[in-house]
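A reminder before we start the practical. When you read a complex entry, don't treat the lines as separate problems. The point of joint prediction is that each chain is placed relative to the others, so the output describes one connected object in space. Small molecules and nucleic acid strands, if listed, are placed in the same frame. In the example below there are two entries. Take a minute to note the order of the lines before looking further.
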Amino acid sequence: MTTSLPPGAILLIAALVVPFVPGGGRGAVALLAAAISLVHVIALEPGTQLSLEFVGYQLEVIRADRLSLAFGYIFHIAALLSAIYALHVRDGVQVSAGLIYAGSAIGAVFAGDLLTLFVYWELTAISSVFLIWASRSEPAYRAGMRYLIIQVGSGVLLLAGSLLHLRDTGSLAFGQIGLDTASPASVCIFLAFGIKCAFPLLHNWLQDAYPRATVTGTVFLSAFTTKLAVYALARGFPGTEILIPIGLVMTLFPILFAVIENDLRKVLAYSLNNQLGFMVVGIGVGTEMALNGTVAHAFCHILYKALLFMTMGAVLFRTGKIGASQLGGLYKSMPITAVCCIVGAASIAGFPLFSGFISKSMILTAVADEHLAIIWFGLLVASAGVMEHSGIKIPYFAFFGHDSGIRCDEAPRHMLIAMVATAGLCVMLGLFPWPLYSILPYAVDYQPFTADHFVTQLQLLLFAALAFVFLVRVRLYPPEIPSVNLDTDWLYRRAAPAAVAVVYSVGSALRDAMLGLALLMVGGVISLIREVTAPRGLFGRTWSTGAMVLWAAVLLGVYLVLYYL
Amino acid sequence: MISQHLPILQIVVPLLAAPLCVLLRQRHAVWAFALGVCWASFGVALALLLRVMNDGPLVYELGGWAAPWGIVYRLDPLGGIVLLIVSGVAALVLVFAPRVLDQEIPADKHYLFFAAFLLCMTGLLGITITGDIFNVFVFLEISSLSAYVLISMGADRRALLAAYRYLVMGTIGSTFILIGIGLAYMMTGTLNMADLAARLGDVHETRTIRAAFAFLTVGVSIKLALFPLHVWLPNAYTYAPSMVTAFLAATATKVSCYLLLRLVFTVFGVPLVFDEMRLAAVFMPLALMAIFVASTVAIFQTNVKRLLAYSSVAQIGYLVLAFGFASQAGVTACVIHLFNHALMKGALFLALGCVAFRIGSVDLEDLRGLGRRMPWIAALIVIGGLNLIGVPLTAGFISKWYLVMAALEQREYWPVAVAMLFSSLLAVAYVWRIVEVLYMQPPRPSDLQSDQREAPVPLSMVAPTTVMTLGTVVLGVYPTFTVQVAQRAAEFLLGVAA
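Here is the predicted structure of the whole assembly.
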């Protein structure tokens, strides 16, 4: 019986029940549904399949293998934790949307064919936008609309790609697709995944929309959309080499933005993008080790990123502020939240004995095994950047730094429970990674706790911490520039970020110029379209009868000429 | 046996019922009578469809006069499905009618309204079932004239002007069609469609036939509201009474599309129309323009009825695009979308009728927070909107799927397929504008107060709306019925089936 129900369906059903439950019970319904669904998916054996026929096509609604199960587990854990965190929400739209969103993301990872995948893909898009709109402000509405159009656009590309794939191969099965620039099908599907995965230049929706969602909405959003894309890439395009440079760029370019950004949830959105880069590199490398690393990293990442968004959400919930410049000194008011935030920060930075360490190092090892030196260095630089903006900046500016004078209550109890549970999982995975390793797609022969890994990572982190202190001091005392002694082996770590910064500034100047030009042109075209289609424009207004008749005459002429020729 | 005479009963019953309505006069009696007639028509249409699906096309000779001399009714699966759309929508709309009419039309005019409604239905059914091309014109005029009357009964005074402008355009369209028929008759000396098709072979090179087809093309384009001849449509739909909008949006343009398919595929023939006269060269760009321009215009509308009217213009673009492929897959897609769109647009306009009944407006501004004030109707509107976008598990998705498959089959048209998919982003924009207003904006306090005083929307209005909307979902999940009928229809239309 359990096998005939697609994973995630319980959440979708619960979403339909929620509107009929009185306000206070809605959060509880969501929580209960997530728990039942988790049990359901744990009971699912690898190899379970369920096919059904739809207008002559064989659809595989359930395809449970190790890859989909790993994502299925973590998505459920994320849904459960998010549901606890959101227990206070009484807004039926938000609760339902969150459930549909989580349920469809879970359904998507178990989809064995492109059509089913597309169904869930679209469902995640149109349900998640309500989490953004639920902020109920004008900017949120606009950001949500942009987000929706881009997400649905990705779905449309996926559908186009699937249909082309069907035409070319005669099959809708979703397996290894592989990027082939000669085949429009694979390009369309690759781009569809790329948009959802926030590839460079396709990423803007993420930083645009996530910070505008509600306190609880962002926690949901951070878990599913992009990781679904990571799953889809891992399924369809493992070992696609172009993913390696794409991923590298993804890990590097958000750093600068994250460092200068004031809105702390936006900082997290940038660092989300950066973490995705690691996974994309792992998929690009495509070895068993790399794919294991990718899945493990996605697993850990969902937890610590959700944790960070939870803590920032709690801060926003209690203080109503989220700008780095407005906050500070909150550790006195919200000590538990602060500790959780530090745990999340340590995890994302990859401190040994925290969860990021045991997964990121797998990807780095896989890259090293393939002798991709430049990529490896690049990822190291990126790791330093992560430490900078997520590991230190977030907790420092929110909870320490200059005292903003804000005194508020500690986060509500259910939020604390969610945060502490998530933090506990982060620590547990960091200390005992073996349960996680046992559910990865391939057998794991990897030992994270070696002296080598420890030393590399600690050196990196300490250096990054040093750089942060240095920057803070420089900002405070501009004339004083303390010299820092660098060993030669540290050089690339200094030089590389600097080089990146130079390239970046030149690049961004160029980009700004191009963008300005493009915007000007696009703006012109858009205003033309608006002018033509607005209610008083050429096509929007009511034409006079004479004009209508004239058109009829013109068309008659056109057809006569056409038919006579 | 009465079952042999079903084709003529389909037409004669509503035709004779119309004057009886005028004689009855008492509004409740008239309504009950018209309702009975429409449901009977629906039953007949269903029986006919089942018969043509099982036994193939049927020919009925009026008064026993044989084909080229007498008038015949001819029905194949395509005609069957269109009959089903027209009579089914009419039956549901009449269930919806009494309460909303009380509000929108003076009680002493109800019997006239029902008479006009039955005539309009008769006309639409007649165009579909007849095998005689002059008969097409007659029925076209019956349906058009009664449609002008129906639209002009709208409560808004602008309805009069809208009806008048529709009258001018519609008359030009009918006249063009008549000229086309006349020219064809001049060259062949026959009005029977099958006979005409046989005799056109000898004279297809002549300029007269070319001119005949040009007039027919423009005439049908006007009736079909194909861009840029769509301009009569938005105002007519916006200002007509709610149930008239629902009925016409679901049926009138569909029957015109049927007429186009019939004329091109069974009378003039694919080689003449597409190879020699290259109709697609103009139709395809116009269809694409319709999709993109009308969808964009829809985004900027503030009146939801008008917004959906423009969306209809865009949907007609899809129909014409599928028609333009001139392939079996294309015709199949066209028929599927014909049926699905009738259902979804009918459902949406009925839902708007409920909204207008309750709050007296369908301006986007006044719909704020309606998700809380009228949760069920708002949910139905959302489902209808999802259909327009083509979200999976709705009938709209089935349409989109077959449309794109048909486009992909034509290898050189694959950019059209991608463009078609991207046009659904425009639909996302205009549908989600409504959804956002319904669910994300708080209702005005004054509205909440008036809610307590006003009676809820009666079941007689909610039920048909619900049936139609859920119909789109059922057909989205189990599309076998639509797909099978459409495939059979395409086979017969293209002469593949024996």
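Discuss with your neighbour: The mean pLDDT of chain B is 88. What might explain this?
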